[in-house]
Amino acid sequence: MRTFKGRWEMIDGKRKKTTSSGMTHEKLPRWAASNTPSTGAAEKPAAKNPGPAVERRAFFWMVLGWGSFTAAMAWAGGLVGRFMFPNVLFEPPQSFKAGTPEEYTVNDVSERWKDRFGVWLVRDTEKMYALSTVCTHLGCTPNWLPNERKFKCPCHGSGFFTTGINFEGPAPRPLERFKIALADDGQILIDKSKKFQQEKGEWNDPDSFLVV
């Protein structure tokens, strides 16, 4: 501990002890307090500016968050759309008009409706009938070979006469026929919802052919 040496002097009519610098003992505590270093906590440094890098990172995460939210909403909207509008298989109509009998050549096969409706129209000297273009073996589509006067399946070689009767290959039965009639306006009307099979004796049904 630091000690102060002094001497006794008469101050204000009183005998007081002073330091070597003339300071009285009453003023010594205040002098010591004013000259003692502060022991308080150090001042905190000023906050640093985060800078452009931090701002770019914040912007990136904000964009990523909004992008994820938008994608999630789009996905949810797609699910709702599929629920409200389910997949529907649109098929060609089962009945259609095929023009007048005069438009078809006698003893010939017309492929006019093959691609659109899966029907061959055949006309002989007495009648017309509508043949299905589906092979009775495995469901392939045969080709009409006019030079050979037959339908030939490219899949397994089944052959059919112009009447639809099978005569070669693995096809187990003749081609099917569709209902055919003459509409009020004179056009041929074909109804695919009604089929006729030769092996069941259904080709004798008047609806399986049209007399011309």
Q: How is the topology of this model organized?
A:
Blueprint: E1 6-11, E2 14-19, H1 28-34, H2 51-84, E3 95-97, E4 108-110, H3 114-117, E5 119-123, E6 127-132, E7 143-145, E8 150-152, E9 159-160, E10 166-168, E11 177-182, E12 188-196, E13 210-211
Antiparallel strand pairs: 1-2, 3-12, 4-5, 5-6, 6-11, 6-13, 7-8, 8-9, 9-10, 11-12
Please provide a written account of the structure.
- The chain is an alpha+beta fold and 212 residues long.
- The protein folds into 2 domains: 34 residues, no CATH class; 117 residues, Rieske [2Fe-2S] iron-sulphur domain (Rieske Iron-sulfur Protein), CATH 2.102.10.
- Helices cover 21% and strands 27% of the residues.
- The chain contains 3 helices and 13 strands.
- Strands 3, 4, 5, 6, 11, 12 and 13 form a 7-stranded antiparallel beta sheet that branches. The protein has a 4-stranded antiparallel beta sheet with strand order 7-8-9-10, with no helix packed on it. A two-stranded antiparallel ribbon has the order 1-2.
- A hairpin with a 6-residue loop joins strand 8 and strand 9.
- The radius of gyration is 54 Å and the shape is rod-shaped.
- The model has no long low-confidence stretch (mean pLDDT 81).
Features:
Rieske Iron-sulfur Protein; 3 helices; seven-stranded antiparallel β-sheet; four-stranded antiparallel β-sheet; 13 strands; 212 residues; alpha+beta
